[in-house]
Design brief:
alpha+beta, 28 helices, 33% helix
């Protein structure tokens, strides 16, 4: 029977949509299972075949769990705010909402075509006001919260105000920007403005001057993970370090919990390692060094206070505020030039550049509090303002970077840890030796010395033991248009949040999407974007009088805001009253399976854990962590094609002749190749772009052969394969099976369209098991033991494979089972019905059609998964090879139930064996049960 995949797939996709087959109920007594894909950003290019890999894997698992009787939540939505739509708006004037809508429609069409079992009724879009209303609401909760270190959680700012009213800052243990000190009386007498200013020091969402990655070309601040090698990840524009007033999120308050939480998660170890490194916990001491001739002190954090006697100079971050104060007139020009140079590097670049040594002398000296020696104070880009205190005590004898710096600037290198190595030539960094040249620490090991020096530091009143984290607070504002407006207005220069009743604060219309002439963000172009405090509404901007009508915040939220909580909104997507009902958040709990790329390790996956912990602290949800199990899928790589252009000409030479010429290798679109071969369609190439219209070709055997290379699949490499084309030719079920068949889910693997014909051939074989010629023919006769054995072998393998995410080996098992059933001409209902259920998570359309042909009116989706019966796998008979003196002589079939002695007796009694023995008695007989018989004569 002809397998018409196009007709079958259209029919069942319509059926699923019309019947809302995958719509998930919240009211059920079934156990829950929550399967989620990382939030897709709807780009203009649509999907290529690399994108669905993770979606197919999660879809198989979701379908399998439905077969197992779980209530499965498998939703979809779009992370629809983002820079690309805005860049397009700047270039064309088209509103980003329109671009985004078109892109989403394209994505949805493609996703539906692949047959995903998403609950489309729960779709969310971060750029819809009904969604970002709640993103703004969460921001307001963060603004009105502080982190109480004593209770180790976020609390309402009301409890902080109560503490101030009763005790001032006495006994306060909070995460804060600066350590403040005032009495209850001083608090009560402070003005409203001063009180607001004090509270900003503690709020979890706060405004402060910070050093940011400023990208002038994009007109915005970028997060560290959006910058690569000093340039913006999107567009490759230069990025500079700049001080600006910015909104920040106090993620640093959660550093320890984020670190400890990793131990409870079933995540890939490399991903956990990335987060652990990013959080960067270290223990040591905070120490103050007096600057000679100044009132100022330089405070450092060091993990090796035991080496303080070897500290011979100090290094400050170029952006440390002390630099301006302590730099001498003679050194000012050199220091200013160095600071200007450093501003062109991002923090990431500075951390990564371990080879180059640079710096400038401030002209000032600090005093070592233990040795009493003078220490020159330098600035250098290897010290970061955001880590520790923005200053280090340099111990060149025992730190590689400090050593390189000392050698370059000819500074003293003093050994304080015992070693035979020449510390003038190379630093010696060890915790296994003892202290030398260190006065009262001499002879002590690392732990003893560290403990003793910390107590001496505390006795002198110049510092204390402490734990430090590399992770810094997250910048939470972007000078862009296409993002969530921040629900804040300014009164006397102080931020105040809008009342919740005013949410959503909607994005206003603007005439242009660029910053204003005054350098304000694009929202500064809006004509209606001011807050009328009396009437509690947004009004025209020209009504601002700073008495009753006030300016609104002009920055928007960063790209990660909406994706930091979307997994919660899916639980209750249409709720107008709250972001998620507590009972629904409790029912669905954590995401049980989360699949997505590893590139989100230190962005989205940290921020969403932080927001989740915060929402738990404030009592809105009950679970600590959002994603219990996470899998990073590998990439599907493209098979790029190249032509060779002879330098200075428009002649193109075929691959195997290119060695004879000076050539340039140029990417060409893979769609210009003939069929699935490497041969270029030269006429299509000439028609591809105007500059190739008069191309000439040097052929081999009358053909132009391209060079092929495996690379990342991307539009710029012209190696993108559109899944729509694959679905048309081989079917969505073919695409789904092939993507799984390519190799283990976590690994990257190259795409090869030629390989699809094998999977398509399997689908046709599977289809024809149910037909006799053109007639659907399935027998109700009881299957044989051999038929049951094929089925139950498959059940055992597929259950193991799915539960271990080994989807590629399942596809091989389907092929083996169908081949075996075809060989024994099996058409029994008791085999073919469960077979359709087993294969349906992978190839749902064909299995729905076969299930329907088998006489069922309902979808196959909720049929119980076939249960393994091990009895069918027990062998009745074993075919024993009989080996004599190391050579296999014959085979004998015997009952699998026989003992080794019974096997031995039957083999010796066999006529063939008697003929070989010729009346002799065997010297030795070895029976390996169910395997082989060895006889020595």
């Amino acid at each position: 029977m002809f397998y018409d995949h196009q007709q079958i797939e259209k029919k069942w996709q319509k059926y699923w949509e019309d019947n809302q087959t995958y719509k998930t109920s919240n009211n059920t007594d079934k156990p829950k299972f929550y399967v989620l894909d990382m939030f897709p950003y709807p780009s203009g290019a649509g999907l290529h075949v690399g994108h669905p890999l993770g979606y197919i894997a999660s879809d198989i698992y979701a379908r399998y769990k439905r077969h197992q009787g779980f209530n499965v939540l498998h939703p979809v939505g779009y992370d629809s705010f983002g820079l690309p739509a805005e860049q397009y708006a700047i270039q064309t004037g088209q509103h980003p909402a329109l671009t985004t809508e078109q892109n989403i429609n394209r994505y949805e069409e493609q996703l539906r075509k692949i047959g995903f079992s998403f609950d489309w009724s729960r779709e969310v879009r971060t750029s819809d006001a009904s969604y970002y209303k709640w993103t703004q609401w969460i921001f307001i909760q963060l603004y009105h919260s502080w982190y109480n270190k004593d209770t180790d959680k976020a609390e309402s700012v009301d409890t902080l105000i109560k503490h101030f009213e009763e005790k001032g800052t006495e006994g306060l243990n909070a995460n804060q920007n600066d350590e403040l000190s005032f009495t209850a009386e001083e608090w009560k007498n402070a003005s409203e403005l001063d009180k607001e200013d004090i509270l900003l020091n503690y709020r979890l969402a706060y405004r402060a001057e910070t050093t940011v990655n400023w990208c002038p070309a994009l007109g915005t601040v970028l997060a560290n993970d959006e910058v690569k090698d000093g340039k913006s990840e999107r567009g490759g524009f230069p990025v500079f370090q700049k001080k600006m007033m910015q909104w920040s999120m106090r993620i640093s308050a959660y550093s320890e919990r984020l670190l400890q939480g990793l131990t409870t998660l079933d995540w890939p170890q490399p991903l956990k390692d990335s987060q652990e490194y990013w959080i960067g916990k270290s223990q040591g001491a905070q120490v103050k060094f007096q600057v000679e001739g100044h009132d100022e002190t330089v405070e450092v954090f060091t993990t090796r206070p035991d080496t303080i006697f070897g500290a011979t100079f100090m290094v400050l971050a170029p952006e440390n505020p002390l630099v301006e104060t302590i730099t001498t007139d003679a050194q000012k020009a050199e220091v200013d030039t160095y600071i200007e140079e450093t501003s062109k590097k991002t923090e990431r670049d500075r951390m990564a550049d371990v080879k180059n040594v640079s710096g400038a002398f401030t002209g000032s000296y600090a005093v070592n509090p233990f040795s009493g020696e003078k220490m020159p104070v330098y600035i250098s880009d290897y010290v970061l303002m955001g880590y520790g205190t923005g200053a280090v005590m340099a111990v060149p004898a025992h730190d590689e970077r400090d050593h390189r710096f000392a050698k370059k600037f000819n500074l003293e290198i003093k050994k304080v840890v015992e070693t035979d190595e020449d510390i003038q030539e190379k630093s010696f960094d060890s915790k296994d030796s003892v202290c030398v040249n260190s006065d009262f620490l001499n002879g002590l090991n690392y732990n003893e010395a560290k403990s003793k020096i910390i107590s001496e530091i505390e006795n002198k009143g110049i510092g204390h033991g402490t734990t430090n984290y590399r992770q810094r607070d997250a910048i939470f504002s972007r000078q862009r248009y296409w993002g969530e407006p921040v629900p804040v207005y300014y009164k006397d220069g102080m931020p105040y949040t809008l009342p919740v009743s005013a949410l959503p604060l909607e994005l206003p219309e603007v005439e242009k999407y660029l910053p204003t002439e005054d350098g304000d963000p694009p929202l500064g172009n809006a004509k209606t974007f001011a807050w009328d405090e009396v009437n509690q509404k947004v009004v025209a901007t020209d009504l601002i009088d700073d008495k009753t009508v006030f300016p609104l915040e002009l920055s928007t939220m960063p790209g990660w805001a909406g994706s930091s909580w979307y997994f919660l909104r899916y639980m209750d997507p249409n709720d107008q009253e709250t972001f998620v009902k507590k009972e629904l958040a409790d029912y669905w709990g954590q995401v049980d399976l989360y699949i997505g790329g590893s590139e989100h390790a230190t962005g989205h996956l940290l921020y969403s854990r932080f927001w989740n912990m915060f929402l738990k602290d404030r009592g809105y949800i009950s679970h600590d962590e959002p994603f219990q199990k996470l899998i990073n899928q590998g990439m599907i790589l493209g098979m790029s094609a190249f032509v060779f252009r002879i330098d200075g000409t428009n002649q193109y030479v075929s691959k195997n002749l290119a060695g004879n010429y000076q050539t340039q290798k140029i990417h060409v679109d893979v769609s210009l190749l003939k069929g699935a071969s490497d041969e270029l369609d030269t006429e299509a190439f000439k028609a591809w772009r105007p500059d190739y219209a008069d191309a000439e070709f040097i052929l081999e055997d009358g053909k132009y052969i391209t060079e092929r290379e495996v690379e990342k699949m991307s539009k710029s490499k012209y190696n993108v394969v559109n899944p729509d084309d694959i679905c048309d030719e081989y079917g969505a079920d073919g695409l789904r099976l092939y993507e799984m068949f390519l190799g283990p889910l976590e690994q990257s693997k190259p795409w090869n369209t030629q390989g699809l014909s094998g999977v398509y051939g399997f689908l046709k074989k599977f289809w024809n098991l149910y037909f006799n010629g053109d007639v659907f023919e399935v027998s109700d006769e009881e299957p044989s033991k051999a038929e049951y054995k094929v089925l139950h072998t498959l059940i055992k393998k597929v259950v193991y494979d799915i539960e271990n995410f080994s989807f590629n080996t399942s596809v091989s098992s389907f092929m083996i089972a169908v081949n075996e059933l075809q060989k024994i001409k099996c058409n029994k209902r008791n085999i073919l019905e469960p077979l359709a259920v087993i294969i349906s998570p992978y190839a749902p359309h064909i299995c729905e059609e076969l299930w329907n042909q088998l006489g069922h009116d309902d979808s196959i989706e909720f049929e119980p998964f076939p249960v393994l019966n091990e009895e069918y796998l027990v062998e009745d008979e074993i075919e024993y090879p009989v080996s004599v003196n190391g050579k296999m002589k014959f085979k004998i079939s015997l009952s699998a139930q026989l003992s080794a002695k019974e096997v031995e007796d039957l083999v010796i009694a066999d006529a063939k064996m008697q003929q070989i023995l010729e009346g002799k008695t065997p010297k030795k007989i070895i029976v390996v049960p169910h395997r082989i018989v060895n006889i020595v004569i």
